[in-house]
Amino acid sequence: MSIDLFAPYSIGRLELRNRFVRSATWDATADSSGAVTDTSVALYRELGRGGVGLIVSGYAFVSPLGQAADGQYGVHSDDMLPGLRRLVRVAHQGGARIALQIVHAGISSNYLRRMGMTALAVSSLPEISRPHQEMTGEDIEIIIADFAAAALRAREAGFDAVQLHGAHGYLMSQFMSPLFNLRADKWGGSRENRRRFHLEVIRKIRRAVGADFPLMIKFGVQDDKEEGLSLGEGVETAQRMAAEGIDAIEVSAGVGRAIQITRDGDPKQAYFRERAAAVKRAVAVPVMVVGGIRRLEMAQSIVDSGDADLISLCRPFIREPGLVARWQRGGEDPARCISCSQCMAIVGKSEPLECGQERRLREEAGNESK
Ligand SMILES: Cc1cc2nc3c(=O)[nH]c(=O)nc-3n(C[C@H](O)[C@H](O)[C@H](O)COP(=O)(O)O)c2cc1C
Ligand code: SF4
What we know:
The chain starts with 8 loop residues before the first strand and ends with a helix. The protein has helices at 38-49, 81-93, 110-115, 137-157, 171-176, 191-194, 196-209, 231-244, 273-282, 296-304, 315-319, 323-328, 342-346, 356-368, and strands at 9-11, 14-16, 20-22, 54-56, 60-61, 73-74, 97-103, 119-121, 132-134, 161-166, 215-220, 248-252, 287-289, 310-313.
């Protein structure tokens, strides 16, 4: 029997209007302090109206040394609260739920490199040229406390949930990955030690926000590099996180390619489906899958087969914030996004997020009318 993707779905106490998720998307619209701007609010207003069940915000840094990129949202200080409340308000007005994604970039910060600042790294890695220094045990405890304070701020701002960014080579991925974590203390070495950071962050957040507040993770369940995190270990960690109180897991890449680019307009569909299915078989909490999902029938087949419970998309909503509403109205054409990742090239170059294809079409039309 086919499952209705447009029927309400609950993650614990969090009720969504359907099973579609806007995966976290950095949009470079925050000001230099990390505060939400009018441009950010307009973007979330449109997303909220567009039919998606849950919007996950662009990644927000938990502390200044955790900032990854320009124009990124911050949740490192109470000064950010008024702006974050505005995002929540417009998402809710459109009928969507909204989660704040929180991150520490660790060694993978383009922002700190550009500013000439030294990043805090899980381990010192001579092959990485950007300035960095290995964290002390005390640094680690402070960052865990920063995650908990950030989650509490998200709750205060009215977000419906928090999502940890545990993927794409940022700090949490770095702790899990044997390629980035060479520590010999209790934070490195064995599987148990490399996942300690995750479990401690979850415990500390739970103590801060209470048992009922939804806490999710976007989890890089496997590295795409030889000798990196294996799928088996990733799945084991997913089980441990669920036991520790994670309410939902969005499956993505660890260290490696999270965003696949295709040149022929025919994206490789659902490239993390198998990884998501492996997690789904191992945990009882809801599982989301992201990565290259562009067709409604693919989304349907993923949910019907039980490979995942929720369907998460990023780039399609950049081009078409109203995609879910269009599908719900019966328009079955695939997403108009062709997965070229031109938007990735635009965003951050002192410009907010925009679809590169749409921009090209606009420029061509402008040239023709001259
Ligand atoms: C412009 C852009 C910004 C992104 N920002 C984030 C982010 O803040 N946090 C995150 O977890 N992933 C981020 N991603 C990755 C996406 O959420 C998603 O995992 C990836 O694009 C694959 O999904 P898709 O094929 O539906 O685009 C970003 C991707 C793009 C293209
Ligand atoms: S530039 Fe547009 S079409 Fe290309 S990946 Fe980004 S949103 Fe999709």
